[in-house]
């Protein structure tokens, strides 16, 4: 775990459908210190390991890297963690107690665990007991289920008592989803109380945001999610700003287009999502996120939302390169 916390790490937050192996490679190149996989279901691992194995595959260059696991049965979570560790030896196993999406919450996983903190503690204890000295256990939570049930302080204490080595806190409640503002005062209070590292997450859109929370809160590091979807170079920029006080310029439009094309090409070649068409479907939301930072893409958004091949994407974006020239 010293790999994660030897300095103030700037981490890539796990995001379903986003932090796949290709995107992790790109973010690592752009300076992300620590990464996690997309979440994987403990029940899925136990019932159909070969089908779910692709969610936990990673390259050695991605280290330090954690596997994020969700579920609601302590014994099943522990058994799944052991299968995963024996197969791929991640640097840590992360308990997902923060995901707000209905398909996870409906199975009593993710942020629904914030409504049953004794269960969350039992899950954490089961994983810690199973993994022992083999692999550290961490957790990601939100600050509570809703505004009337802010429970992060108790959750962190229970996780710490169970032997969890670090906690990432997203500063929103489950009911907020991704709306409103992240409450960094709660994250800060947890970080000041905890004897383990607390990583802060939420509304970190710029290098200035990262520096502000480092200077004004007690967090041991930060995790960046949605901002990295549109601008993966935020890791490099933020690290430079923390070290020198100067922010490197973002890539020029032509460089951004080249980045988008490379990401798409690598995704197609990886076959992580299957053949070219399903890969392009999976990439559409990613392409729209990238497009927000590239001048001239607004009229192209309808075509990007339907793009079906890499060659078609080149045709859509090539006029932007000619305009810049």
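^ structure tokens above, recovered residues below v
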């Amino acid at each position: 775990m010293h790999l994660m916390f030897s300095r103030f790490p700037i981490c890539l937050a796990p995001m379903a459908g986003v932090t796949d192996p290709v995107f992790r490679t790109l973010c690592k190149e752009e300076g992300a210190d620590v990464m996690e996989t997309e979440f994987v279901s403990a029940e899925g691992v136990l019932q159909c390991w070969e089908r779910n194995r692709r969610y936990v595959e990673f390259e050695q260059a991605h280290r330090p890297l954690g596997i994020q696991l969700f579920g609601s049965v302590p014994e099943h979570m522990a058994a799944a963690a052991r299968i995963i560790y024996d197969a791929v030896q991640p640097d840590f196993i992360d308990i997902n107690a923060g995901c707000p999406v209905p398909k996870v919450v409906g199975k009593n996983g993710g942020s629904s665990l914030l409504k049953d903190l004794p269960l969350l503690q039992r899950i954490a204890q089961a994983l810690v007991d199973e993994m022992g000295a083999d692999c550290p256990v961490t957790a990601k939570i939100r600050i509570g289920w809703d505004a009337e049930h802010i429970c992060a302080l108790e959750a962190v204490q229970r996780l710490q008592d169970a032997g969890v080595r670090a906690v990432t806190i997203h500063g929103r409640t489950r009911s907020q989803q991704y709306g409103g503002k992240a409450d960094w005062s709660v994250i800060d209070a947890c970080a000041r109380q905890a004897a383990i590292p607390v990583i802060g997450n939420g509304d970190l859109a710029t290098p200035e945001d990262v520096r502000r929370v480092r200077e004004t809160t007690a967090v041991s590091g930060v995790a960046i999610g949605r901002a990295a979807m549109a601008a993966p170079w935020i890791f490099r920029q933020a690290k430079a700003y923390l070290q020198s006080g100067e922010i490197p310029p973002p890539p020029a439009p032509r460089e951004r287009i080249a980045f988008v094309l490379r990401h798409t090409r690598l995704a197609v070649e990886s076959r992580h999502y299957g053949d070219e068409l399903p890969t392009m479907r999976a990439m559409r939301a990613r392409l729209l996120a990238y497009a927000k930072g590239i001048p001239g893409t607004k009229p192209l958004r309808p075509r990007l939302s339907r793009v079906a091949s890499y060659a078609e994407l080149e045709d859509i974006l090539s006029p932007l390169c000619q305009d810049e020239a």
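The chain is about 50% helix and 15% strand.
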